[in-house]
Design brief:
Blueprint (H helix, E strand, L loop, with lengths): L1 H17 L3 E4 L5 E4 L5 E3 L37 H7 L6 H11 L7 E8 L3 E8 L2 E8 L2 E4 L5
Antiparallel strand pairs: 1-2, 2-3, 4-5, 5-6, 6-7
Length: 150
């Protein structure tokens, strides 16, 4: 019985791999997905058009403060006991801010602490640096951008 079930599973999976979908371009530049079950659909709903750069006049620069921080925002206060213990390993909030400022090529005054989660062994800090919202983590005395392995 096990032999027949194994053969059936192999047969069904091979059918799935045997079917191919194709992407083609129409004459007007739209891409179409041709499916293996003889149906199709547009990938691009509108045809591609070239834009003349001389006609574009109302481009506005990006807002430098994309963190949406209110004007009267004050940074949250951190635990003094934890910060005094981290001073020995150079992992206090001022050290973290210097690292963020160095990574984002701005001044330490431009780095604003938005929120934090902190314990003795590890911490997570969310900053606004150069108008960019960024999260850093601290594991022991090492500081790294969240999402990076090393």
């Amino acid at each position: 019985m096990k032999k027949y079930v194994l053969i059936l599973i192999c047969f069904i999976s091979s059918i799935g791999f045997a079917q191919n979908n194709y992407i083609i371009k129409t004459e007007d530049g739209r891409r179409v997905l041709l499916k293996a079950d003889y149906t199709w659909e547009y990938i691009d709903m509108q045809p591609l058009t070239l834009v003349d750069s001389t006609k574009i006049t109302d481009i506005k620069p990006l807002n430098p403060n994309t963190c949406n921080v209110p004007q009267d925002f004050t940074e949250p206060k951190l635990d003094k006991k934890i910060q005094s213990q981290l001073k020995k390993g150079r992992a206090t909030i001022s050290h973290v801010k210097r690292k963020v400022a160095k990574d984002y090529k701005c001044d330490v005054k431009d780095v604003l602490l938005l929120s934090y989660s902190e314990k003795k062994a590890r911490g997570t800090y969310t900053f606004c640096a150069n108008g960019t919202k960024v999260t850093y983590k601290r594991n022991g005395h090492s500081i790294a951008k969240k999402g990076k392995l090393f």
